[in-house]
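Why run this: before we spend reagent on co-expression, it is cheaper to look at a predicted model of the complex and decide which construct boundaries make sense. The entries below are exactly what would go into the expression plan.
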Amino acid sequence: MLKSINEDLCIGCQICVDVCAEDVLRFDKDKKKPYVAYPMDCLGCGACAWFCPKKCVDVSIDRGRPEVMAY
Amino acid sequence: MKTSNYEADVLIIGGGLAGLTAAVKMKQIREDLKVMVVDKGGIGWAGQTPLTGGMAIYLQPDTVDEFVDFIVEKGNGLSDVKWLTRFANGLEPSTKELFDWGIPYMKNPDGTLYLSQAAYWGVKNKLTSFVPHLATLHLKKMALARGVKLLSKIEVVDLLKDDGGVTGAVGFDILSGDYCVFKSRSTLLANGCCNFKGRVWFTMTCGEGVAAAYRAGAKQRHAEYAHQYDPGDKQSGIWFRGEAASDFIENVQGETFFKKYFPGQSRLGSWALSYAMGAEAVAGRGPLYFNATANFDVFDSNLAKEDIRSWVYQGGGFLNPDRLHHDRGGHDYRSQKSEWTLRFPGRMGSVWVGLDCRSTELQGLWAAGDTVISGCALNGAMSANAYGRWGLPFAYVSALMAAKDIAKVSPNLPKPKSNRDEQERLREKIFAPMASKSKEFEPWDAILKVQKVVIPIKYNLIRDEKRLKEGLQMIEEVRKEMLPRVKAETPHDLLRYHEAESIALCAEMTFRAALYRTESRGSHYREDFPERDDRNWLKWTVIKKDGENMALSTEQVPPGKSSVKNSGR
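The model came back. Tokens follow.
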């Protein structure tokens, strides 16, 4: 689950917004910062945190949506 | 709601490795072509590519024949040998071309391309490596430098047709909600396969291109083989493809069991280990565990070689199984056994195109990469990536093929006419969920219900007529009862709705094809038809839209280099 973005560290590069597979993040053009628009759709993949050049994304592996298991 | 209109000679739907490679190549051949790439994500970072492992198979020319023979033998008679041979022959020149473009591959000290030995289950191939997100970012820069127009955050839903040919596409801007109309002489679908959001990674690709192609009348092939299950850690979610782990998986009684199901066989592709695990689970001998505490180094030596693995990770590659396993709470494999399970990465890319990636039914349509990876039936009776390391090279090999053909053909295709009635009809259809008065369901309700059919092994791995029909009924309920009662309040909801619709359609194709094939062969296993039946089923299943119906038929596998030997099943 995408918990927060540290706006003090964030440089507004939008990599997190671009890489998110689930459109969880949107970009505030006035603040020039991303924000968590749809937290329930976060599956906890961690791509946003990994690719953030300033390591300002805090995301856990918890999912907003349940996981269906194979058995 | 505004309508944004775009025109191009070539529209490329999907800006990942395949789409961007094709864009760059087309412009190299024909600088005058107006090329536009559109993607639902942020181009350069979007799609599957940045999250992949960055390793790609590579064949030196003197190993191509042996490779093809091996894959054909393991494919249990259903390999499309012509496609497989094209792919195999294309690996070296395509890799060298991308290397010359400056894609940052791993290099030798003298600057030449570094070739690693394949993992133990490799099939005579070598491996090359690049840091995937650096590759797509490099391709993005090349595309922009050549005047390719890149449009991000646009969900394409349907193809535009005119006089039986494809003349562009329509969709919507995920940010503004505007309707987007793309008119083009040629359209290349390169927006991936359907993964059904079945695993935590690679969830962006929901088969929208496969669905759009189906609705436009393009043939689909081999849909019953689009199901891929990967064995991996239950806690962390990391997986290992191929049979690297087969001697290390034990059931609840502490027995290793792979050899029981496939005595004396190896290198069948990861479907075999997945089947064995599924069968043990169904027999009540789960939970299943990965146990390499006695010989972790042997397991480790089965994986891709350390040289190439650590290079990708040091370059910032996302898919580092060690890191992800650790960060996601996984056990230390050297000291503890760990529960494993099967996860479902999907990989339904059933569009069937000719050897030049050109649609054989629809003028003006091409498809490449994962959109066609199962439809190409490269490795026969198993899912497209059952050996691993094929997805990335298939993306760029097929993209280069498509680009060459499009550059040749596109200038002679007619300029698309403006068909306002059709554009208006599609606009109403695409935005219907926003106009809906009912708010009974969210799009994720529909996605979950389809996942409850495609993911459980009782429906999609250990198949039988009764459960396949049960699954189909659930999918029909999603398509006919749930989706029409979804209310999309925002463009984000609308995106999720169209993903749900594509996921449901791809699931229906998979299940209808699985019901149709009344035999067992490779990864398609029917409890009610457990034997392989070459007399009736040395054929591919074909799906095509016929009015409102999904019509199934077969096409004979051409005689020639094919195997009547049983490989696994």
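The domain at 228-345 of chain B is CATH 3.90.700 (Flavocytochrome C3; Chain A, domain 1). The first strand of chain B starts at residue 3 and ends at 13. Bring this page to Monday's planning discussion.
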